[in-house]
C-alpha cells in the first residue's frame, strides 16, 4: 500500500493527496497515518514540487469532503436502514452496524464536540459523520467542527512527516499506541459519565 500511496502523490501532487484523504474517509483501511506523513516527507525532499502548506490544505480538503460523504446518508436514511446496509455491504468498507450504533451513542452523549474530538480518534473519525447526519446537525456547524478537528489531525501528521523525513513511517508506529490510549481514555470518561448519571438518578 505504501508504494501505491507514494506513486499517487508523486504523479498527481496535491490532487493525489486530496484524493487519498478523501478515500481514507470512505475506506478506513487506507491509513491517514501513512498518507500525510509521506506527503509531508515528500514536501521536504530537495527540489520538491510540493510545499508543506499546499500538502496540508490538500489533505484537509480531501478529509472534509470525505466526511461529507458519510454525513448525507445519515441525514437522509434511517438509522435502521444504515445498519442493514452496513450488515450487507459493510465488510467492503471495514464497518459494521455495531460501529454505527457506538458512534451514535457517543454523539448523543457528547453533542457537537463529538465531531471535533471524533476527527482526532482513528476508528471513530470516519464514522462520527453518520450520527451527526442522523441527528440533523446543522451543516455549517458540522463543517466547522469537522474542519477544525481534521485540521488538527492533518496538521500533526503532515508536520511530523516533514520533520522525520525518511523515517516518516515511524509516525504510524508510535502514533498507533497513543491513539489507542486516547480512545481508551474517552471510553473510560464515557463510562464514568454514565455511572455518575445513574447515581444521580438513584438519589432522586
Structure explained in plain terms:
- By secondary structure, this protein is mainly α.
- The protein has one domain.
- The chain is 79% helix and 0% strand.
- The protein is built from ten helices and no strands.
- The protein has helices at 2-12, 14-26, 32-43, 52-76, 79-93, 97-110, 113-118, 129-134, 139-164, 170-203.
- α1 packs across α3 and α4 (52-76) runs antiparallel to α9.
- The longest helix is centred in the C-terminal third of the chain and has 34 residues, at 170-203.
- The radius of gyration is 18 Å and the shape is elongated.
- Residues 177-183 have low confidence and may be disordered.
Question: Brief description of this entry?
Answer:
The longest helix has 34 residues, at 170-203.
Overall outline: elongated
What is the count of structural domains?
1
Helix content: over 70%
Q: What percentage of the residues does DSSP assign to strands (E)?
A: under 5%
Whole-number radius of gyration? 18 Å
User: Biggest β-sheet: count, sense, barrel?
Assistant: none
Number of helices in the DSSP assignment: 10
GO cellular component, one term: plasma membrane
Keywords: Cell membrane, Membrane, Transmembrane, Transmembrane helix
InterPro entries: DedA_domain (IPR051311), VTT_dom (IPR032816)
Membrane topology: Multi-pass membrane protein
